[in-house]
Amino acid sequence: MFKQDFRVPTGLENQIQYHIQCGPGDVAPVVIVPGDQGRVESIISKLHDPKKVSENRGLITYTGYHEDYPVSVTSTGMGGPSASIVYEELINIGAKILIRIGSVAGLQEEIEEGDVIIPHACVRDDGASQYYVPQNFPAVASPEVYLRLISAAKSLNLDFKTGINWSHSCFYNRDPEYFQRWSRYRVVSMDMEASSLFVVSSLRGVKAGFIGIC
User: Fold this and answer.
1) The domain containing residue 115 runs over which residues?
2) Spatial distance between the Cα atoms of 114 and 116, rounded to a whole number of angstroms
3) Which CATH number covers residue 28?
4) In this predicted structure, what is the pLDDT of residue 178?
5) Domain boundary among 68, 95, 122
6) How much is the pTM?
7) Distance separating alpha carbons of residues 73 and 76, to the nearest angstrom
8) Burial letters for 135-173: b for 16+ Cβ neighbours within 10 Å, e otherwise?
9) DSSP H or E stretch at residue 145
10) pLDDT computed for residue 176 by the predictor
């Protein structure tokens, strides 16, 4: 049932979470975490019997089923700082696998609009993860999730690429060198939220992966 009333939050594990307004039992062990709340509707259209759990501050959560497996979908908002709050709160109430689905921009000439990017690691320039760990701490996808995403893409005959993604925190930077530098390093794509996902999941002992769409 959609919770119409704002519930008393604590932000602690196994309690109602302050921002997402979800508590124990509201989300499945597997949660898909798009940034844009508009993408939630598209994702839940693929689920069976999706139920709206909460909506607060632009953060929407649904829980439904894929075949017989429970799956939740929660929007994170834009950027590492907002997204990391959502990741933390989902983990607090039982999320075990977080899969981000979101837009990326390609940084290599061979990458075309519509290509699928499945990164195995990220450059950490997201504006949040540096407050968790030193800058030389790696941001990497969970191997099990990464390999499952690769396998799923192959089974669907998707044209996908893999490599390193750059998560940055300045959407409207107008300096071409800002982007060209990472292109020279063979970084394949850029987004704003994936590196904070990989760091938070690593520190909290859960699994994470990322699917980007150019």
Assistant:
1) 104-204+210-214
2) 6
3) 3.40.50.1580
4) 85
5) 95
6) 0.92
7) 10
8) eeeebbbbeebbeebeeebeeeeeebbbbbbbbbbeeee
9) helix 143-155
10) 86
Distance CA 210, CA 73 (A): 14
Local confidence pLDDT in tens for the 214 residues of the chain: 445 555 555 557 778 999 999 999 999 999 999 999 999 999 999 999 999 999 999 999 999 999 999 999 999 999 999 999 999 999 999 999 999 999 999 999 999 999 999 999 999 999 999 999 999 999 999 999 999 999 999 999 998 999 999 999 988 888 888 889 999 999 999 999 999 999 999 999 999 999 999 9
33, β-bridge pairs: none
What is the H or E stretch that residue 200 is in? Answer: helix 194-204
Other beta carbons less than 10 A from residue 37's beta carbon: 15
Check whether residue 124 and residue 177 sit in a common domain: yes
CB distance 206 to 89 below 8 Å: no
Query: pLDDT tens, 94-110?
Result: 999 999 999 999 999 99
Residue count of the chain: 214
